[in-house]
């Protein structure tokens, strides 16, 4: 085999991606499909899942609220039946959570952020790990954290707290699952170009009482390369982590962010 062939996943990889009907998750699904992977996505939005599967008929789609343990169990059962096993879980689903000073945050919004960003990953792991151990010889898990999982993020404390927790979860699982030859890594996206980031910038601009363009430039000036990353950049890293070239990479929190210096 050509050495550089190791830089892409082997064909037939069985992949489950959460939160994958749009944004980063959709880019991940499209990228893995291009490598002849067998991909199952899940998302909370039934219409979005239906549209995505219609335009990518090789996909398997499931609908579920990732913060609901019973719905997660149903998604895992669907993926197991559709894929015949599992080689890779990409725990991608998440929400931005509320923006504001900690004393003004709604406890219900805090709880929803923790449930969606952190608890959901546990719900998938508790069911996916035994399946990966039982059916895969190339098992791995990719946790989607954030650059907010290595930097403080004022006015976004619920989001940052969950993303830091995910890095700790990943590092602990890498140790736990290493003897079973299951690799666990985290991707930490930076400022990702798109509508979701525009909403985040708008919310923070409103919270601080400054114009949107001023806040957008403030974000860019914190990035060494002075540009946002794209969903394609994130997908490329996920493909590498799932490839034979990364066979000895585990327990790593890898930033894809143009070197975001601070938040």
From TrEMBL:
Keywords: Oxidoreductase
Listed name of the protein: NAD(P)-dependent dehydrogenase, short-chain alcohol dehydrogenase family
Source taxon at top rank: Bacteria
UniProt xrefs under InterPro entries: NAD(P)-bd_dom_sf, Sc_DH/Rdtase_CS, SDR_fam
Family listed: Belongs to the short-chain dehydrogenases/reductases (SDR) family.
PROSITE patterns the record matches: ADH_SHORT
Organism field: Chitinasiproducens palmae
Record-linked NCBIfam families: PRK12826.1-2 (NF009466)
Pfam families for this protein: adh_short_C2
Coiled coil region boundaries: none
GO biological process: fatty acid biosynthetic process
């Amino acid at each position: 085999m050509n050495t550089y062939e190791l830089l892409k996943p082997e064909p037939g990889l069985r992949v489950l991606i959460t939160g994958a009907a749009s944004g980063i998750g959709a880019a991940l699904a499209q990228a893995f499909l291009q490598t002849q992977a067998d991909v199952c996505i899940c998302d909370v939005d039934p219409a979005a899942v239906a549209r995505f599967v219609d335009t990518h008929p090789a996909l398997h789609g499931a609908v579920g609220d990732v913060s609901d343990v019973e719905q997660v169990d149903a998604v895992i059962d669907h993926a197991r039946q559709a894929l015949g096993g599992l080689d890779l879980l990409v725990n991608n689903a998440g929400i931005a959570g509320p923006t504001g000073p900690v004393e003004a945050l709604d406890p219900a919004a805090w709880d929803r952020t923790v449930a969606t960003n952190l608890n959901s990953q546990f719900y998938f792991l508790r069911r996916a790990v035994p399946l990966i151990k039982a059916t895969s010889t190339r098992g791995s898990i990719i946790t989607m954290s954030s650059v907010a999982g290595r930097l403080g993020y004022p006015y976004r404390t619920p989001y940052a707290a969950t993303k830091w927790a995910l890095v700790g979860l990943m590092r602990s699982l890498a140790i736990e699952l290493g003897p079973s030859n299951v690799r666990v890594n985290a991707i930490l996206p930076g400022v990702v170009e798109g509508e979701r980031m525009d909403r985040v910038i708008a919310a923070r601009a409103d919270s601080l009482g400054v114009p949107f363009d001023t806040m957008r430039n403030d974000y860019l000036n914190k990035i060494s390369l002075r540009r946002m990353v794209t969903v394609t950049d994130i997908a490329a890293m996920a493909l590498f982590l799932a490839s034979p070239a990364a066979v000895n990479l585990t327990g790593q929190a890898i930033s894809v962010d143009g070197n975001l210096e601070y938040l």
